[in-house]
Write a structure and sequence with these properties.
8-stranded parallel beta sheet; tRNA-dihydrouridine20 synthase activity; Aldolase_TIM; Four Helix Bundle (Hemerythrin (Met), subunit A); 336 residues; globular; alpha/beta; TIM Barrel; EC 1.3.1.91
């Protein structure tokens, strides 16, 4: 759609999905070495953890991670507004409400996908947050839950959050089963329904909308942008992170040459050195780098060396060098 660039906030045209245990500060710093413009997200942080836990740790991020959104899990409007203000004060570019996670732990906390059944509560959270912050407030949701999966149900949900002032709706194009399926199965078993998200976007032309779920290549992402304003890529960006290298040129009109995989490794050295000096392990960084040489000569050896050696006591940059030595150096073409 020709107006998608006008409607879409900076960075959100292509984004990397928030994922628990994966989109850590180390992963985000690494991903930022590959793409300068794609919007990145934190892992979901609950309002209780942010208010009563280690607030500084949850809000900590490197300046290079921007554009960056904080994803919140919660259902109390006052708490959500307070946490949105914390996010804005900490310098986050956006704050997102998780209304898509189907795990039992999240349901027990009365947030995540189960909150689709209470659209007015989500709308109240959006309104309370918008009243406190000037940064965008977005909602990440599913197309339905359990047997509440009609288009009318989804349309009513979108109507309420739009009227509350949400700046963007990010729709995972699967419904969530809240009982009987694991979170992993909820990413795979319910069928994708892109057409329903496309219909929703057409029905809400003034509400920027991004699509998520099952998008594994940039050609598919480009096709989706004929119907929606933004595309969120999840597990593929993690499994094969260098697949995101063409994003800046293709979707953000940035003609700066993409870094090679070797450039990315070199750019990580200072970060890894600081990370280790702070008492952290090498493995907590390199686990995010395992797929960097996916499908490349020596890629399996790279992965094996990092997997076997990075968790050893005292492991340092020499492990990176050993893994890199197993990758056949080559002149890599700039991604198209």
């Amino acid at each position: 759609m020709t107006d998608s660039i006008r409607r879409n906030p900076p960075g959100a045209r292509v984004s990397v999905a928030p994922m628990m245990d994966w989109t850590t500060p180390a992963q985000r710093y690494f991903m930022r070495r590959i793409t300068r413009h794609a919007l990145l997200y934190t892992e979901m942080v609950t309002t209780a953890a942010l208010i009563h836990g280690d607030t500084a740790r949850f809000l900590d991020h490197h300046v290079d991670e921007h554009p960056l959104a904080l994803q919140l899990g919660g259902s109390d409007p006052a708490d959500m507004a307070h946490c949105a203000e914390l996010a804005a004060d900490a310098g986050f570019d956006e704050v997102d409400i998780n209304v898509g996670c189907p795990s039992d732990r999240v349901q027990n906390g009365a947030f995540g996908a189960c909150m689709m059944a209470e659209p007015q509560r989500i709308a109240d959270c959006v309104a309370a947050m918008k009243a406190r912050v000037s940064i965008p407030v977005t909602v990440k949701t599913r197309i339905g839950i359990d047997h509440q999966d009609s288009y009318e149900f989804l349309h009513d949900f979108a109507t309420r959050v739009a009227e509350a002032g949400a700046d963007r709706l990010i729709v995972h194009a699967r419904k969530a089963w809240l009982s009987g399926l694991s979170p992993k199965e909820n990413r795979e078993v319910p069928p994708l329904d892109y057409a329903r998200v496309h219909r929703l976007a057409a029905d809400f032309p003034d509400l920027p909308m991004s699509i998520n779920g099952g998008i594994v290549d940039l050609d598919t992402a480009a096709e989706q942008l004929d119907h929606v304003d933004g595309v969120m890529i999840g597990r593929e960006a993690y499994r094969n992170p260098y697949s995101m290298a063409p994003v800046d040129a293709r979707f953000f009109d940035d003609d700066t040459p993409a870094p090679s995989r070797f450039d990315v490794v070199e750019a990580m050295r200072d970060f890894i050195g600081r990370h280790l000096a702070a008492g952290n392990t090498l493995q907590s960084v390199t686990r995010h780098m395992l797929g960097l040489f996916h499908a490349q000569p020596g890629g399996r050896a790279w992965r094996r060396v990092l997997s076997e050696q990075a968790n050893r006591p005292g492991a340092g940059l020499e492990v990176i060098d050993a893994a890199l030595a197993r990758v056949a150096p080559a002149d890599e073409p700039t991604p198209a």
